[in-house]
Design brief:
The chain has helices spanning 3-21, 41-44, 53-68, 169-178; strands spanning 45-49, 72-75, 80-93, 96-113, 116-131, 140-144, 162-163, 196-199, 204-207. It is an alpha+beta fold. It has a domain at 19-163. Strands 1, 2, 3, 4, 5, 6 and 7 form a seven-stranded mixed β-sheet that branches. Strand 2 (72-75) and strand 3 (80-93) form a beta hairpin. The N and C termini lie far apart (63 Å).
Amino acid sequence: MKPNLIQTIVVMSLVLISGCASVSRPVPPASNLCWTEPDQLEDRTRRYLNVEENQVLLAADRLLRLAGKDDIKIERPPHSITAEFHRERWLYLLLVAHSSSVWDHWSIATRPQADGVQVCVQVRGQTFTDTFVLGAEPMTNAVYPANAVERNPGEFFKPPAHAYPVDFDTFWTRLGYLLGREPVWTTCPSGGSGGVRINALRGRLEVNPLCHSLVDDPSPPTTPKQ
């Protein structure tokens, strides 16, 4: 068989299976439920003294745009931010297709107080990396948070998937930096392309939505905006 014919067959096959590489769209979290959802509530909430609500929302907006750039869509309902991030990449190595996909929904809610503001964050999503070799299992198929469920199996998350708790440490450190409360901007550690890593402090595997291979890991902003 001629080489150009082989390449044509491979390309056509990849076109046919490309739909299988994309993750399904997760159900977005509802911002009004951020405060009542018990899962990881302590990890997801913070209180900032002597900070105005709009400062927090502007900082959260900037934080997410630095990570998602043109692939993130942000809206500003009252007292909150909602964001949708979707990105896919393909790599062809020795005629083998490698794909990576992510689909995240963020919700940041605020409660103004006399001496500051309370902040709550939620994220629901899936990261998926795969190599198209016959019989091979996906390299990474992570959904989050740990209580992520589907009303109809296979409709909102591409199966088979494993649900993980979320590591919010990077989010809070970066938000604190942008508010002028943290001296250091947190960058992501190397490795863990799907964002799944062991959190030694908590003794469990977690997903960091700001630190997988499809999210930008920006350098520290030169001037924190408050």
